[in-house]
Amino acid sequence: MDCDKCDRESVMHAAYSGLHLCEDHFVASVDKRVRRRIREDDLVPSDATPDNPQTWVIGLSGGKDSVVLTDILYRTFEKDPRIELVALTIHEGIEGYRDESVDACEELTDELGIRHELVTYEDEFGVQMDDVVEKDPENMAACAYCGVFRRDLLSRYAEKLGADKLLTGHNLDDEAETALMNFLEGDVAQIAKHFDASLGGFEERDDGSGAREEQDDFVPRAKPLRDVPEKEVALYAHVADLPAHITECPHAEEAYRGEIQELLYQLEENHPGTRHSIMAGYEELAELAAKEFGARDEGRAELGECERCGSSTTRDLCRKCSLLDAIHAV
Ligand code: SF4
To answer: Taking the model in full, what pTM does it have?
Structure first.
């Protein structure tokens, strides 16, 4: 099948748009969607100038999503002195997994000439995820511990690096899955947070860790890849020959998300465009929910400081510090 825009052979067919695209036109269409999202979300403020540049910290895991995001951001702002990019990688201490993806991060940032910071659970918390899984003092899924630690490091290091924004590589499938999970669980407070996030707050699904009672310190987040389906992100990494590390984490076990993924896949197969329509409706709903809850400022006012690390929390010890106590006690 030929490309719809030229006579070269197509490498992809997007059922939701009906388009067949060759390599060059496919890459251009992904770039265009990411740049449009950056514009529509007003990520570059009007007061950013070469003398007053913005620092954007990218959460770079070495997986396809964050690698593609870093590559597109680099090419978008390569000649724009208003934006400085810094890549931040978190090493959880997972044997046979994270070392390889850190290699991918180093290869990419070396090639692009982007500053790269590496932070480890071992140095920061004195734990490795492999040991946490072994000890499991709270009888929780690995990701519930890992999410708390990662959120803490991303927030703290984004601040430390002087970030004006923290950017992550969530794609359209990730976002539609999260939307559907929140909706199916009837979790309106969490839906409201999605709108809050688009205003520069922090939105992350409850992972069962109890971290939802806490609020990360406030570096605005952004997800410029959120209009691009996962398969297209993977194809982009392949076509652009990017050093993405594809293996799945051996501790990944979010069973409910797996069910939702399967459901969405079937819906998208039978009704192309489902993910896009879920997100369009979800964003409207989130705005209404956020107005109703008005939770952001009121919620923040109730937060105190963790007596050990100073993070925002409603309790004496934040969730991260109490989890670390439980792990170190085993
Ligand atoms: Fe951590 Fe879970 Fe991600 Fe593995 S899959 S890195 S355990 S959050």
So the answer is: 0.91
